[in-house]
Amino acid sequence: MTVLTWSDDRVEQLKKLWEAGLSASQIAAELGNVTRNAVIGKVHRLGLSGRAKSPSSAAPRQRKARPAQQMVRVSRPVSRGNTALAHAFEVEIEPDPIAFDNVVPMSQRLSLLELNEATCHWPVGDPASPEFFFCGGKALSGLPYCAHHSRVAYQPASDRRRAAPKPTR
Predict the structure, then answer these.
(1) Where are the alpha helices (DSSP H) in the chain?
(2) Do 125 and 133 form a contact (C-beta atoms < 8 A)?
(3) Partner residues linked to 123 by β-bridges
(4) Cα 102 off chain centre by
């Protein structure tokens, strides 16, 4: 393998070609026996300034207009995956005694120490504030919340999921 050194003449020629706006590949071909990467490395070591871009490359390219793609909705079954072990919760829909969200009667409010399996464990407020409490309503059997808070906590998966973008081919 032959190691070429950068003679003063080659360096001057490199500088002139660089200032003239030739690419590293063009300079390598002009100098001969040197690679594009060698030219780039020497330009970097010499600290030669970057060249101004030509007006054609400085302007952003116009994008090709893509035809509008039709979205196709595919219906999916309500339950997915292994449903053999899935719990079937039957929620009794009863009239909601709470008219507004997070409005709990004073007599129903409980502290953490007062909670049990029959009471609603829904937290209300900031736990760091003295006004913090739990709903304390009648919990549904097998669930930690009352009917109202169960509807808030256990929403169908189809309502929560966003449609994932379909991959384009």
Answers:
(1) 8-19, 24-31, 36-46, 55-58, 147-153, 157-160
(2) yes
(3) 134
(4) 31
Of the candidates 67, 69, 75, the one whose C-alpha atom is nearest the C-alpha of residue 167 is: 69
- Give the helix ranges, DSSP H, for 49-88: 55-58
Q: Interior CA angle at 51 toward 47 and 57, to 5°?
A: 145
| Separate counts of helices (H) and strands (E) for the chain | 6, 2
Assess whether pLDDT exceeds 50 at residue 71: yes
Strand residue runs (E) in 67-134 = 123-124, 133-134
* pTM (2 d.p.): 0.36
Cα 38 to Cα 163: distance, rounded to the nearest angstrom: 51
With cut-offs at 50, 70 and 90, classify the pLDDT of residue 64. confident
Handedness of CA 33, 37, 43, 45 (dihedral sign): negative
Structure-token pair, residue 20: 């003239």
Contact call for residues 117 and 139 (beta carbons, < 8 A): yes
H or E element that contains 117:
none
3-class secondary structure, 110? strand
